[in-house]
Design brief:
Shape: elongated
Strand content: 15-25%
Number of strands: 13
CATH class of the largest domain: Mainly Alpha
Number of helices: 12
CATH superfamily of the largest domain: Trigger factor, C-terminal domain
Radius of gyration: 34 Å
Family: Belongs to the FKBP-type PPIase family. Tig subfamily.
InterPro entries: PPIase_dom_sf, PPIase_FKBP_dom, Trig_fac, Trigger_fac_C, Trigger_fac_C_sf, Trigger_fac_ribosome-bd_bac, Trigger_fac_ribosome-bd_sf, Trigger_fact/SurA_dom_sf
Order of helices and strands: EEHHEEEEHEEEHEEHHEHHHHHEH
Helix content: 40-55%
Largest sheet: 5 strands, antiparallel
EC number: 5.2.1.8
GO molecular function: peptidyl-prolyl cis-trans isomerase activity; protein folding chaperone; ribosome binding
Distance between the termini: 54 Å
Function: Involved in protein export. Acts as a chaperone by maintaining the newly synthesized protein in an open conformation. Functions as a peptidyl-prolyl cis-trans isomerase.
């Protein structure tokens, strides 16, 4: 028997579940008799323990199990009869009036229901779609990056197969230098302020600007003294904001030699026949795939923001709390992967993810409504096409495809991605869309900041 569902707010509901005590007791007695057939106790053979002793030992445990099962079933029946979509897990609390001996067991089940989702006119949404065309200049820039990744160094002034680096043997930007340095604060050495045979590349920003400026122009064997003021927000708190006196002594200067863009270079990038035109074509294909991925991400974010703006719904607190816990667990896993000690038990407050979780839940409800209303579910052929496209960037595409289809979770993630893509295409087909052309560099910068 169940009472009428009470409305406690926009989404919160309550229903009282009543269970006759004699019905519960019959089930308890039945389970105890079954339990007695196999229960073990000191001094008795299995199945020969007196029923009274089994009852005394297990009455409370079995009664709790029976009540849990029956309350859960009654609650399910009520929500099905009333056609209620329960959001999250309900909470059950015994209901007993003070000073009253109840004839039945009674529990209050408090829960939330899924909200009504109202999505406005998609045609009113405004989307600025980023467009990037890969030019020869973009390919040249990528080749220059690849050359720098394969740089090797030669001592300045020493002849070799690639020359001697020029007549000027002073240190320049791009050179790899090795030096000794000694730093003092008020005439005293400080921790981390001195080193021998310290190597770094000038111009990469690894050292503070004053340090690099002092090293520029020095030759091997030369020394220089200079003042260096540590930034106020410097990671070393003992020296932050203070001015130290440094002495540096140059010990080695090596100039960078970048490989030529030739057949050998192409082969080093996996082009077996060393064809430079083919190498440039493959670089262009990779850049276009990367540009497509980045532009899709930017457009997707804009579409999701637009959908949230035109949608009206209340968000179940239970779902937000569940997602907060998921985000906490994800944060702990990230810390574990970074090698942080005791990351699995890191005290990460769920509150810090409240806003993010609410947005994720709200967006999930909006997308589910949109997918259902406009039949935007992922079709098998769409999922396969996306897997094939993703696999193209790997050396063995067939193995990547097999890897996806051998695991349901990975396939489900791809399915979710396709559903989002379907939603994006649906919105772009109806919203007011304007195109904005940007370079690949601008695109990369925009997605890095997002």
């Amino acid at each position: 028997m169940a009472n009428v569902v009470e409305n406690l707010g926009k989404l919160e509901r309550r229903v009282t579940i009543s269970l006759p005590k004699d019905t519960v007791q019959k089930e308890v007695d039945s389970r105890i008799r079954q339990l007695a057939k196999n229960v073990r106790m000191p001094g008795f053979r299995p199945g020969k323990v007196p029923l009274k002793m089994v009852t005394q030992q297990y009455q409370g445990q079995v009664e709790a199990e029976v009540l849990s099962d029956k309350v859960g079933k009654e609650f399910f029946d009520v929500t099905r009869t009333e056609n209620l979509r329960v959001a999250g897990q309900p909470s059950f609390a015994p209901k007993v009036a003070e000073g009253e001996v109840a004839e039945d067991y009674a529990f209050d089940a408090t829960f939330e229901v899924y909200p009504e989702v109202k999505i406005g006119d998609v045609a009113t949404a405004e989307i600025e779609r980023t467009v990037t065309n890969i030019s020869e200049a973009e390919i040249d820039r990528t080749l220059e990056i690849l050359r720098k990744q394969r740089v090797h160094f030669h001592a300045r002034g020493e002849g070799g197969e690639h020359g001697d680096g020029g007549a000027d043997t002073a240190a320049k930007d791009g050179d790899r230098v090795t030096m000794d340095f000694v730093g003092k604060l008020d005439g005293a050495l400080f921790e981390g302020g001195s080193a021998e045979d310290f190597t770094f590349v000038l111009g990469e920003g690894r050292m503070l600007p004053e340090f690099e400026t002092a090293a520029l122009g020095l030759k091997v064997g030369e020394s220089k003294e200079f003042d260096l003021k540590f930034p106020d927000d410097y990671h070393g708190k003992d020296v932050a904001g203070k001015t130290a006196q440094f002495t540096i002594t140059m010990k080695k200067i090596e100039w960078p030699h970048l490989p030529e863009i030739d057949a050998d270079f192409a082969k080093s990038l996996g082009v077996e026949d060393g064809d430079i035109a083919k190498m440039r074509g493959e670089i262009k294909d990779n850049l276009e795939r990367e540009a497509k991925r980045r532009t899709q991400q930017i457009v997707k974010n804009q579409v999701m923001d637009a959908l949230l703006k035109i949608s009206d719904l209340d968000v179940p607190k239970a779902l937000v709390e569940q997602d907060q816990e998921r985000l906490v667990e994800m944060a702990r896993q990230d810390l574990q992967q970074r090698g942080v000690p005791n990351a699995a038990d890191a005290p990460i407050p769920a509150e810090m993810f409240a806003e993010q979780a609410e947005r994720r839940v709200k967006l999930g409800l909006v997308l589910a409504e949109l997918v259902k209303a406009h039949d935007l579910q992922a079709k098998p052929e769409q999922i396969r096409a996306e897997v094939d496209e993703f696999a193209k960037s790997y050396e063995d595409p067939k193995e990547v495809v097999r890897w996806y289809y051998s695991n349901q979770q990975r396939l489900a993630e791809m399915e979710a991605y396709v559903v989002e893509s379907n939603v994006v295409e649906f919105v772009l087909g109806r919203a007011r869309v304007s195109d904005k052309e940007v370079s690949f560099e601008e695109l990369a910068s925009a997605t890095a900041q997002a």
